[in-house]
Design a protein that fits this description.
By secondary structure, the protein is of the alpha+beta class. The chain contains four helices and six strands. The chain has a six-stranded antiparallel beta barrel with strand order 1-2-3-6-5-4. A hairpin with a 2-residue loop joins β4 (46-53) and β5.
């Protein structure tokens, strides 16, 4: 039994705020890990195929080429973020990543 054949299919849009479908915003760990939302700034409207349950708008199944089906969940209270706050958040995350990588390199150098 193939789940995508049981559920209706449609297309969602990947935006800087999340995966936009039917006026609601969704997210999933894979999208965050692969920075889909950050990269969507560089690209015009990126689209992704989705399966959905018409009776339950709280989740979607994303059809991702290199992974298969990935569940995405609706973000409750999805309000637009202030662009300055969003930029500060991304900047802080990137600084933390840089510090973590530097610390790992130092630890490897010293055999820790």
């Amino acid at each position: 039994m193939n789940l995508p054949n049981l559920l209706p299919m449609d297309t969602a849009t990947i935006t800087t705020e999340g995966i936009l479908y039917n006026g609601m915003i969704y997210t999933c760990p894979l999208a965050i890990k692969e920075q889909w939302f950050f990269h969507s700034v560089d690209n015009d409207a990126r689209r992704i195929s989705v399966c959905f349950d018409p009776k339950d708008p709280n989740f979607l199944l994303l059809l991702v080429d290199h992974v298969g089906m990935v569940p995405a969940y609706k973000i409750v209270d999805s309000k637009p973020l202030n662009p300055d706050v969003l930029e500060a958040y991304h900047s802080a995350i990137n600084i933390l990543k840089s510090k973590w990588k530097l610390k790992r390199r130092k630890n490897k150098k010293h055999g820790v």
